[in-house]
Amino acid sequence: MNATSQTQIRETILHVLGDIAPNANVQAINPDISFHDQIELDSIDFLRLMMSLEKEMNVTIFDFDYPKLSTLKGCERYLSERLAATA
């Protein structure tokens, strides 16, 4: 899996997020506002999100990078960079 499109990355993030926060309307998420502020994702849920994204996208997400992934846009940017680096 080398050239993963932005659309595929976004769909994967939203799918995983929907599994973790089933009551959230993930399609209505503002890409610039933190998940915590929009769907009340607590720290345990956020950790589950990071681990699930690692598994789904087959990348390593370093814990010191977690703040970069607090928004949908941040997740997309980070995962794009990580996937490009491993391609």
Concise structural overview:
With 87 residues, the chain is an all-alpha fold. It contains four helices and no strands.
Question: How would you describe this structure to a colleague?
Answer:
The chain has 87 residues and is mainly alpha-helical. It has a single domain, classed as ACP-like (Non-ribosomal Peptide Synthetase Peptidyl Carrier Protein, Chain A, Orthogonal Bundle). Helix content is 57%, strand content 0%. The longest helix is centred in the first third of the chain and has 15 residues.
Mean pLDDT: 92
Strand content: under 5%
The level of helicity is 55-70%
Distance between the termini: 8 Å
Top CATH class: Mainly Alpha
Q: Helix and strand layout, with pairings?
A:
Layout: H1 6-20, H2 35-39, H3 43-57, H4 72-86
